[in-house]
Amino acid sequence: MTKRTQLARLGLFDAKVPRYTSYPTAPHFDGDVGPSQYQDWIRSIPEDGNISLYLHVPFCRRLCWFCACRTQGTATLGPVEAYVGDLQRELALLRNVLPQGVRLSRLHWGGGTPTLLSPDLMKRLSASIREVADFAEGYEFSVEIDPNEIDEARLDALAESGMNRASIGVQDFDPQIQAAIGREQGYDLTRDAVEMIRSRGVHSLNADILFGLPYQTNERITETVQKLLSFAPDRVALYGYAHVPWMAKRQQLLPSEALPTPQERLELFETARRLFVWDGYDEIGIDHFATKEDGLSVANREGRLRRNFQGYTDDTSGYLIGVGASSISKFPQGFAQNASATSKHVAAIRDGQFSTARGHKLKGEDQLRARLIEALMCDFRVNAAEILRDFPISREALFGMFRDANASFENIMEITEDGLFIPEAARPLTRMVARAFDGYELSRAGHSSAI
Questions:
Q1: pTM above 0.90, yes or no
Q2: DSSP state, 330?
Q3: DSSP secondary-structure letter at 112?
Q4: Closest CA to 122 of 94, 143, 139
Q5: Could you count the other beta carbons within 10 Å of the beta carbon of residue 206?
């Protein structure tokens, strides 16, 4: 029996499962968490502790058809400037409830297109953030940069504000594929953006590419990867395109008949994966690659790799605060999400209130199952001793969970005295294995192909 045949029989090419950037996943959030609970959780942050801050800019000059993020198009900077003012108001609210001495270990600007902001708006926003909390030693400030929407002045503003890691979305360099997904971005344009970034002393570079796009072939993804490797990025995220047109209406513009089959998606992933490994990159979890000196690789080797809404991280802070419309915050007690609609979010902020609309208070086995799933997603293994040390579960009950999960996958995994391990041949099933430890009912919303 071939590996491909067994993976197919176990449901790899048919399953729809979460990406598990949180547990429980966002579709299971409810209205039990509001502004009052959110403020209480912020106040519980230890004085002089470290936090991560995520700032969401939901505007784009153009809307890429493949994207399922919460964004809106704008032809002028008027709405963006007004929104930055609202972000400053929200940051002021945060400053009023945040304990003394808190510092930023991580700061990330995402979107949307954060580089849509003018240099002046970038400086204003950065100043407001530093009024909330200063950077911690060894901080990381990353910004998602669209090569179509960046110039010298804006990069100067970001570098002066402390940006030390840039993240560039590539998706694919093939012109036919770019036209099919509504994202035209030439190699030369991207190369120029990379050179401008590094000329300002920002040497840490992330890049995202997608597999599973219309018209993608092994030859085309090989050429894209080779072009990307010419930039020598520190980290690469190799995400599977999630075709969810019932959720992201703009995806209806993609030629669905040109999408690769699930089996072809696996081949595309394996082709790109081999190229990154051959070039000396370490494999990080299910879909990331990093140079051996990068923080993700170090965390991976030391068993400190974690997972959050941006994917894999080496951040050790237990507190992630999301600012802006639809942003999600994470605390040891649970999750809190701002109003998704920009209009509702800014209305609350202008009224002097946080816009927290929903979330989840961790209860029951949530923390146990969250750690089991994170361990599988990060390390492909669960260390039984760690779980028994940190959670109120018996060895018999834990190994019962292991055996039940393994039985549902034809015992393809390994169970030893140390715990549960997913062997390399079974790792395409990782998200499905994680699903076996999910205590919530599977919802179609927000879930994508297992490969």
A1: yes
A2: E
A3: S
A4: 143
A5: 23
- Rounded Cα–Cα distance for residues 358 and 335 (Å): 8
Report the DSSP beta bridge partners of residue 236.
Answer: 207, 289
Residues constituting the chain: 451
Closest alpha carbon to 163 in 133, 126, 191: 126
As a whole number of angstroms, the distance between CA 181 and CA 254 comes to 6
Compute CA distances 252 → 66, 73, 256, whole Å.
9, 17, 8
Written as six digits, the tokens of 43 are: 């106040």
Q: What single-letter amino acid sits at 286?
A: I
For residue 245, give both structure tokens.
């047109």
Distances (CA, A) of 229 to 185, 234, 241, 263, 441: 16, 10, 20, 25, 41
Which of 399, 401, 433, 404 has its CA nearest to residue 416? 399
Instruction: Please state, in angstroms and as integers, the Cα–Cα distance from residue 313 to each residue in 113, 235, 237, following that order.
Output: 21, 11, 12
Measured CA to CA, the distance from residue 7 to residue 412 in angstroms comes to: 10
Q: Tell me, what DSSP letter sits at residue 322?
A: E
- Does residue 117 contact residue 80 with C-beta atoms inside 8 Å? yes
The strand pairing partners of 307, in sequence order, are 312
Measured CA to CA, the distance from residue 206 to residue 145 in angstroms comes to: 10
Round to whole Å and give the CA distance between 357 and 349: 12
Of 319, 300, 295, 134, the C-alpha closest to 206 is 295
Specify the residue for token string 């007004």.
Answer: 82
Instruction: Give me the average pLDDT of each 10-residue run along the chain (451 residues).
Output: 80 90 94 97 96 96 84 87 98 97 97 95 98 96 96 98 97 96 95 97 96 98 98 97 88 94 96 98 98 97 94 93 97 97 96 98 97 98 98 98 97 97 96 96 68 85
Positive or negative, the CA dihedral 294, 297, 303, 305 is: positive
Non-local (6+) Cβ contacts of 7 within 8 A are: 13, 266, 426, 428, 429
Amino acid identity, residue 416?
T
Instruction: State the amino acid at position 332 in one-letter form.
Output: P
